[in-house]
Amino acid sequence: IRSLKGIHLAIEALRPLQRNVDLWVTGDQSDQAASTYLKSLLSLAEREGVSERVHFLGLRDDLPAVMMSADVICVPSLWREGFSLVAAEAMALGKPVVASCRGALPEVVKNNETGLIFDPDCPGDLARALSAVITDDALAASLGSSGRRSVLVRFTYDRWAREVITQLRAAASSGSEP
């Protein structure tokens, strides 16, 4: 749990959403940096009037099961993520994803195709994206199934192995030595 993961944005986005929408936060809370941020998050949830809807689940070894129990997976990162395993895992499980526009997230989560992308610098953008997925079952199902198909095509070990083999064969057939 770190401020660059944008959890505070998810807490702020919770207030305008339906009262039956809760936020689950997973992650290691044991080190000092996490502890300090956690205190600020608890304070923010109190100020926003959503503290009863924010649940810190801690470090989990059953993350796929937690994700399967959720309606939508939110990746509100402020950090320029190099990939975002969380988004890819959620998509592999067929879950709709709402992710920030930072780093490689828009490459992993294709906006309006495999998930929704929001701008963390635009107040209300995350709440609007979450609301769209939460209130539109057809959209959520479409994003989830498209996300799963995308992961199976783009992020499997078989695809990676085929690409590596292709590159190795091309290098070997070029006749050049290293």
Task: Provide key terms for this protein.
178 residues, mainly alpha, three-stranded parallel sheet, 8 helices, 5 strands
What's the layout of helices and strands?
Layout: H1 7-14, E1 23-26, H2 32-48, E2 54-58, H3 63-69, E3 73-75, H4 85-92, E4 97-100, H5 105-108, E5 116-118, H6 125-135, H7 137-154, H8 157-173
Parallel strand pairs: 1-2, 3-4, 4-5
Helix pairs in contact: 1-2, 1-6, 4-7
Residues in β-strands, percent: 5-15%
Annotation field: number of helices = 8
From the N-terminal CA to the C-terminal CA, the straight-line distance is 44 Å
Order of helices and strands: HEHEHEHEHEHHH
Order of strands, widest sheet: 3-4-5
Mean pLDDT across residues: 95
Helix content: 40-55%
Task: Show unreliable segments.
Answer: none
* Topology, number of strands: 5
Mind explaining what this structure looks like?
This protein is mainly α and 178 residues long. Helices cover 51% and strands 11% of the residues. The chain has eight helices and five strands, in the order αβαβαβαβαβααα. The strands form two sheets. A three-stranded parallel β-sheet has the order 3-4-5, with helices on both faces. Strands 1-2 form a two-stranded parallel sheet. The longest helix has 18 residues, at 137-154. The model has no long low-confidence stretch (mean pLDDT 95).
